Amino acid sequence: MPSSWSVSIPPSINHIPVMLASYYFRDVCSVFSSFDSELNPFRSYVSQVFQYSSPVFNAMLSSSAARLADEMPHLKIVGLQYQSQAMRCIAESLKEANQIPEDTLFAIFILGLSTAWHDGKDIGLAHFRAAQQAILSNSVSFRGNDQSMISFFKYALVYWEMAVSLVSDEVKISDSDIVNDIGESNLTAISNSEPGNIRVVPHPWTGVSSPVQVLFSRVAKVIGSLRSIKSSSNLGMIRYPKLSEEAERLEVSLWSIELPLIANVDDTGDPNTPASHHLLLAEAYIFGALYQIYHNFPSVLRKRRDYLSTGTFRGTSPMNNPLQEWYHSLLSDASDTTLLKSLGINIIYRLQQIPISSGTRSVQAILMFVAAGSLSLPSPLISEDPCLLNTHSVQPEAVFGSDQSIHIIQLREFTISRLSALRKLIHSRPVDLMLQVIKEIYWRLDEGQDVFWIDVMHEMKCETMLG
Predict the structure, then answer these.
(1) Phi, psi values for residue 203, rounded to 5°
(2) Which of 218, 296, 433, 444 makes an SS bond possible with 464, Cβ 3.0 to 4.6 Å?
């Protein structure tokens, strides 16, 4: 850790808190952010307030203990004790003020994102709802009207909404003022910069993807609604047309959205996470959202293909959006199945360009889940040799020399190895559940099943915090 990042721990604090506080600044705060430098508020802000903010102090120690519990099992109960103490401090803070102090809200964010570290299946909904209510009702008191913290919380809520909406149908998506209207005209040339500022400063959670993640969340909600009506044919007949219309509106927005140019993205000061990583991630989110729409609403895909076949672009034509170049790279007679597979594979291609050392590694798991369902092997391979069904352990040379099969197996191996590396690097219990689900997805694909990742996750009861 650079000397400029060192934090003075008061000598009056006893041994375990000293160890946990030091570990937080050495290893944990970087996991909370997609880049690590003085611009990472989980480092810089916490270092400013932890000595006087009881909610932040206990929340940071709780997250550290949860991360260390694998190597030091006795810290599991310690982590839960600090978690309980943090919640008591938050409750006391709320009693004493009409508004939520910013340090208390920050502690809620730490608790919410680390809850799954204690229990992989706890996605921290109570913490999310408390933070969402505070931010949307403008009930937060900021020190000196700090605009940077206001912006941090607003965009952090976008990411948190996306992460929990993917695994819970109970989440209400806010009408974010980042994208007031998700109609195609208002999503043209959106950037994450503040009004009047041509520079784009990556956010610790959303990077440069805030508008895309707003759409990603709404796609998740539409798909969740679709899943809820599948068991009722009468309800489905009534609601499906409206859901399909909403999916189509989101699809148009995804084709119209414009990402910032790399020259306009500010350097975060993290040499491991250049601007290109944030842009690759934003592109992957676009592909991921579109894949989910087309997989669940084939009519939307057919309508898009009809427009493109006539040379007509539905929506506006953005300067920096990867979708047109991707579509034109496909053969004109490519099937819908091939197109879907290509969308998923393009997610993985972008993640492969980002090394595991990148700070964005901790926000990549969602995308690997989405892409996994596209990594099906050619059907002759599956039907000819039952011994190859468990393909995440198959050696490429065992696949009859099929280039396509070898390529798919390599992409599968990348997702498994990337998640396994994450497990070692961030000691996160949710990653264990993610690995179970993604291996099950590949097994079902090899059984010839039509697989969608959310269905598999819910059937296995492996819902977890994916970011």
Answers:
(1) -90, 150
(2) 433
Say how far apart CA 387 and CA 405 lie, in whole Å.
15
Q: What is the pLDDT of residues 379-412, one digit of tens each?
A: 654 444 343 334 443 443 443 347 888 999 999 9
Domain boundary among 145, 176, 208: 145
> 402 and 281: one domain?
no
Q: Write down the pTM of the prediction.
A: 0.87
Other beta carbons less than 10 A from residue 11's beta carbon: 7
| Backbone phi and psi for residue 93, each to the nearest 5 degrees, phi listed first | -60, -40
Cα 465 from Cα 119, distance rounded (Å): 10
Q: What are the phi and psi torsion angles at 141 (to 5°)?
A: -100, 120
- Domain closes at, from 316, 331, 354: 354
DSSP 139-185: -EE-GGG-HHHHHHHHHHHHHHHHHHHTT-TTPPPP--TTSS--SGG
CA atoms within a 13 Å half-sphere pointing along the CA-CB vector of 130:
21
Q: 400-428 burial by CB neighbour count: b if 16+ within 10 A, else e?
A: eeeeebbebbebbbbbbebbeebbebbbb
The phi, psi pair for 464, rounded to 5°, reads -155, 170
Backbone angles phi, psi at 200, to 5 degrees: -115, 120
d(CA 351, CA 265): 19
